[in-house]
Specification:
Elements (H helix, E strand, L loop, with lengths): L1 E5 L1 H8 L7 E5 L3 H6 L3 E2 L6 E3 L6 E4 L1 E5 L7 E5 L5 H6 L9 E2 L5 E2 L4 H7 L1 E2 L11 H13 L5 E2 L1 H13 L7 H12 L4 H10 L2 H5 L1 H4 L16 H14 L4 H9 L18 H4 L1 H10 L4 H18 L6 H10 L6 H16 L11 H13 L4 H5 L4 H22 L1
Helix pairs in contact: 5-7, 5-8, 8-11, 11-12, 11-17, 12-15, 12-17, 14-15, 15-17, 16-20, 17-18, 18-20
């Protein structure tokens, strides 16, 4: 039995960045031997075990063979005869196909260290094209390591293009796709994830609604970058720079989908794009079974982001309707995320990345004014049922009028 550290732990150590997760591969062992040493089995499809003390994952060396469509269409074979090199060749990228023993002696049969130095994301073998999930994984790694200068090798991008055109991406389950998308959006440069998917044709397959934004012009007075797709990438970049949560980043990606539906003869204006985009946002949400909080914020930001930008001009009645739509009384956090998404949208424009956004504090103040209305005095005056609701609404409207005059 020989044990090796593999994959990301080796890669990140060589890059000089913190190692978070450690995976191990065990060569020359059987399931029975692992159980005898106290390892606990966890793998349903192939032999993976948890270390009795550290809880880290140890997998028996294995080979795999394509046996069906999609990410799960593989047959695995694990036995003591499988070599380390045979286990490593089934991995996606050369930089993830290195191993080291307990003395940090490197096993690198597919030149991962060379590609690390060249800052290249390159596939290990032609078998890369058998797993459609790898298109998303490579795009995610490109987003993660973009700041270090990594790019996708041309021949790997070509394989990703072939996969995108093969129909295999449609075999991915919503759950697997969302797991990669959500992780990619939380990388330091999530816009690179979208750029790589677009470069290999995968964006058109997975999110045609986002792909359709590229080449669609906007008024240069408001959008110096002009192209709607370029603007979306910039908004996503700003969301990452400002350490926004996944909900905000997802909303930023989808907020302008309605502009992809504007007839060319109406360009560069996009009248009512907020409402037109809602059915597209809903479709993307459902396609990937995004979590409920992500779905809800994306819909609300899509519908109301221009209200956010025009906050200082809104009539008190319109402002109250906006606050009611977000249920600021029970869910104040969601309104904060809306404000954040609006600010990222305002900053995601060429040359305007450092602009101030006074609408943010104005909206927070309006929410505070509306929330300041106490219900108890109205109850004491005898209001109840629908009349109580109307009385609360009147008082909140009064408070917003006073707030607007004061500001």
């Amino acid at each position: 039995m020989r044990i090796y550290k593999v994959g990301g732990a080796v890669r990140d150590r060589l890059l000089g960045i913190p190692v978070t997760d450690i995976d191990w591969v065990v060569v020359g062992a059987t399931t029975e031997e692992m159980l005898a040493k106290g390892f606990r089995p966890v793998g349903a499809d192939f032999p993976v075990f948890l270390h009795p003390k550290s809880g880290e994952e140890y997998a028996l060396a294995r080979t795999e063979r394509k046996s069906g469509r999609g990410y799960g269409g593989f047959t695995f074979h694990a036995s003591p005869e499988v070599t380390l090199e045979e286990d490593l060749i089934r991995r996606d990228l050369t930089i993830n196909a290195m191993a080291e023993d307990d003395q940090q002696n490197l096993t690198d049969p597919y030149h991962g260290q060379r590609d690390l130095e060249a800052r290249l994301l390159r596939h290990v073998s032609p078998a890369f094209a058998e797993d459609p999930l790898r298109v998303l994984r490579v795009a995610r790694f490109a987003a993660r390591y973009a700041a270090l200068g990594f790019t996708v090798a041309p021949e790997t991008l070509e394989l990703m293009r072939q996969l995108s055109e093969s129909g295999e991406l449609e075999a991915l389950t919503p759950e697997r796709s969302w797991k990669e998308i959500s992780r990619a959006l939380m990388e330091d440069q999530p816009q690179v994830f979208i750029e790589v998917l677009r470069a290999c044709g995968a964006l058109k397959v997975l999110m045609p609604e986002v792909d359709a934004l590229f080449g669609v012009p906007q008024p240069p007075a408001h959008h110096p970058e002009i192209d709607t797709g370029a603007h979306t990438l910039s908004v996503l970049e700003q969301a990452a720079l400002h350490k926004q949560p996944l909900t905000v980043r997802w909303a930023c990606l989808l907020h302008d989908l309605g502009k992809g539906l504007t007839p060319e003869e109406e360009w560069p204006r996009h009248i009512a794009h907020e409402f037109k985009g809602l059915k597209l946002i809903k479709a993307v949400n459902e396609r990937f079974k995004a979590p409920r909080d992500c779905q809800e914020l994306a819909m609300l930001v899509g519908e109301y982001h221009t209200h956010g930008h025009r906050a200082l001009e809104l009539k008190p009645s319109t402002l109250l309707e906006l606050l009611q739509s977000f249920d600021i009384y029970r869910r104040p956090h969601r309104f904060e995320e809306f404000i954040a998404a609006c600010e990222m949208d305002a900053r995601g424009r060429e040359g305007l990345e450092q602009r101030s956004y006074p609408q943010a504090d104005y909206l927070r103040g309006a929410a505070t004014a509306a929330r300041s209305i106490a219900v108890q005095p109205l109850l004491e005056k005898g209001f109840k049922g629908p009349e109580l609701g109307e009385a609360i609404k009147r008082e909140r409207l009064k408070a917003l009028k006073a707030y607007k005059e004061q500001v």
